[in-house]
Amino acid sequence: MLKKKKITIIGAGKMGETLVTRLLGTGTLTKKQIYVTARRSVRVRHMTERFGVSGSTDNQEGVRDADIILLCIKPQMAQAVIAGIREVLRPDQLVISIMAGVTLAQLQKAVGQPLPVIRAMPNTPSEIGAGMTVLASSSETNGEHIRLATELFDAVGKTMVLDEKYFDTVTGLSASGPAFIYVVIEALAEGGVKCGLPRDVSTALVAQACLGAARMVAETGQHPAILKDHVTTPAGCTIDGLLKLEEGGLRVTMIKAVDETARRAKVLGYE
Ligand SMILES: NC(=O)c1ccc[n+]([C@@H]2O[C@H](COP(=O)([O-])OP(=O)(O)OC[C@H]3O[C@@H](n4cnc5c(N)ncnc54)[C@H](OP(=O)(O)O)[C@@H]3O)[C@@H](O)[C@H]2O)c1
């Protein structure tokens, strides 16, 4: 569906570059279909030279010829940037925002006309195609718009469509989640170091154990508790390790971390 579409990325920073890398790398889009903008011309030059895409610092120029406009600017810039492109936006265009904390209602108010808007929440493993993006859509969107957005974000990993009411929780789980898991990986690797393993070996073992465990959950569909029970032999050694995790309150700490992140996500964006 994307084959005939032109995409303009407004604010081609870190996430914008990740998206362009994967969209071209997976063959989802060709360089002729992509236009990028940034605040500084040096940034635009970096993108156009690295990828052979078109670009400028003129957001209106980028919007005029686009079928899909992908807003990748920081949330604080949302109002000013959208106000700057409002007069050239058309109802036949699809606007997708990846800005954390900026709601569909805020986006719709900012664009000032009834056009299809989708809110997306990707995460950083998108960089290697192992991302998780959650989408929520405005009432002006139809099935084709959702399919287009899904196809775009499938280039950076998996995509799921959810009601917007879940977005703060999604932020606490799949968006911030990788940071929590990095801490877990680092801590387990320290355990290996404490027991005498070289740090690089320890980290590699933990990373692969996490990858394997994540794939077991995702691919077998089994409850994590059942998978955990399979590792835990009666009177074996795993149960002693699990006891230490419970003693340290790992489970409660993780639940609170997600809850607190979701609370904070509610007040991000702008009033
Ligand atoms: N990073 C993540 O893990 C992640 C995950 C999910 C969602 N997000 C969301 O993704 C968005 C971008 O994050 P990021 O990490 O990619 O930020 P970033 O690297 O700072 O990129 C923002 C880009 O916006 C450009 N920009 C600023 N003002 C502009 C204007 N008036 N017109 C056009 N472009 C303008 C900047 O240009 P210059 O480079 O020239 O200053 C920069 O390239 C944020 O809203 C964030 O909430 C990020």
Structure description:
- The protein is α/β, with parallel strands linked by helices and 271 residues long.
- It has 2 domains: 2-168, NAD(P)-binding Rossmann-like Domain (Rossmann fold, 3-Layer(aba) Sandwich), CATH 3.40.50; 175-266, ProC C-terminal domain-like fold.
- Helices cover 52% and strands 13% of the residues.
- The protein has helices at 14-25, 41-51, 59-64, 78-85, 104-111, 143-154, 167-175, 177-194, 199-220, 224-231, 238-247, 250-266; strands at residues 7-10, 34-37, 54-56, 68-71, 94-97, 117-121, 131-137, 157-161.
- The protein has an 8-stranded mixed beta sheet, with helices on both faces.
- Strand 4 (68-71), helix 4 and strand 5 (94-97) form a beta-alpha-beta unit.
- It is elongated.
- The relative contact order is 0.10.
- The mean pLDDT is 96.
- The site of NADP nicotinamide-adenine-dinucleotide phosphate (NAP) has 27 residues, from helix 1.
- NADP nicotinamide-adenine-dinucleotide phosphate is lined by residues 10-16, 37-40, 43, 59, 72-75, 77, 81, 98-100, 121-124, 175.
Question: Can you give the helix content as a percent range?
Answer: 40-55%
Distance between the termini: 36 Å
- CATH fold assignment of the largest domain: Rossmann fold
Instruction: Output the radius of gyration.
Output: 21 Å
- Runs with pLDDT <50, length 5+? none
What's this model, at a glance?
This protein is α/β, with parallel strands linked by helices.
List keywords for this structure.
271 residues; alpha/beta; Rossmann fold; ProC C-terminal domain-like fold; 2 domains; eight-stranded mixed beta sheet; 12 helices; 8 strands; binds NADP nicotinamide-adenine-dinucleotide phosphate
